[in-house]
Design goal:
alpha/beta; Arc Repressor Mutant, subunit A; D-Maltodextrin-Binding Protein, domain 2; 3 domains; five-stranded mixed beta sheet; three-stranded antiparallel beta sheet; 9 helices; 40% helix; DNA binding; LysR_subst-bd; DNA-binding transcriptional regulator, LysR family; WH_DNA-bd_sf; DNA-binding transcription factor activity
Length: 295
């Protein structure tokens, strides 16, 4: 009997690929384990490829299965997003754009974009999610985001990166720190202080840039704490657990007992870029990009 690949095969395959356990995957799918095993075996026969390596103790993906898992995740997510877009369009809207961002982008770039979209394209829906650089890149590659705002110098093949905002850096100090804008001369004045940084995993470019700011001042910073949230960093500074260097825009919107000294005379700048997938077919994306890049 000739069989053809059907959507259910992909759904069943992904469940097993995620669980790496046929019984657990079958329970997740509300089907019998023998039935699931039969469907996976049928899929392997149709494709002429072994997708799983099975032994008595465990199940693991074959190299072909690992590749297929990524592709199926993309396909199923794209189908789900297509259904969502169709529903919005049928209701008279222009679809949805999914936006990821770092916290600092919410100080100016993202709010301005949302206001411009509301004015120019009120029928476009938006969804927002604060994510690390790495998570945004992953979700854009898997078609789970349309547009991201990141601090990166390079991105994987297939993605485009365009700077949209350049900011200075500022030193963040406890309110009663002896240094202030009038007495600050250079960064070496805080070489003995502990530093609180954004996690390297959250933003590698930011982390390396702050390290370079200190090294240009003739010292390597003593890093006492790391975080992925500006509010946490400011709270730690407020409680005199260290000092920080952040993009200047982050000083807006937080009411804490800290003070900022803008580092105007250093060469480093905090560059925020938008990132998107070159072959993204969401028509709302172009409207967003046009607004971001308008003079």
């Amino acid at each position: 009997m000739d069989y053809q690949i059907e959507l259910r095969h992909f759904v069943y395959f992904l469940a097993v690929a995620e669980e790496l356990h046929f019984r657990k995957a079958a329970e997740k799918l509300f089907i019998s384990q023998p039935g699931l095993s039969t469907q996976i075996k049928q899929m392997e026969e149709i494709l002429g490829t072994q997708l799983f390596v099975r032994d008595k103790k465990k199940v693991r993906l074959s190299p072909a299965g690992a590749y297929l898992k990524g592709e199926v995740e993309f396909i199923l997510n794209h189908l789900e997003q297509t259904k969502k877009q169709l529903k919005l369009i049928d209701q008279g809207h222009l679809g949805e754009i999914r936006i990821g961002f770092l916290g600092s982008a919410m100080q100016n770039v993202v709010p301005n974009l949302l206001l411009d979209l509301k004015q120019e394209f009120p029928l476009i829906h938006t969804s927002l999610e604060e994510l690390s650089n790495r998570a945004q890149i992953r979700d854009i590659l898997h078609d789970q985001l349309d547009l991201g705002f990141v601090r990166l110098s390079r991105v994987p093949k297939g993605l485009k990166l365009k700077p949209v905002y350049e900011d200075t850096f500022s030193l963040v100090l406890p309110q009663d720190h002896p240094l202030d804008a009038s007495t600050f001369k250079n960064i070496k004045q805080v070489s003995e202080d502990d530093f609180i940084l954004f996690s390297q995993d959250y933003s590698p470019l930011y982390y390396d840039t702050v390290i370079s700011i200190c090294e240009d001042g003739g010292f390597s910073p003593k890093v006492s704490h790391k975080s992925v949230h500006a509010q946490t960093i400011f709270k730690l500074v407020e409680n005199k657990l260290g000092i920080a260097i952040v993009p200047t825009a982050l000083q807006d919107g937080f009411q804490m007992k800290v003070k900022f000294i803008e580092l105007k005379r250093i060469k480093q700048r905090a560059v925020l870029s938008m990132v998107w997938k070159e072959d993204n077919r969401n028509p709302a994306l172009k409207n967003c990009m046009d607004l971001l890049l308008k003079p």
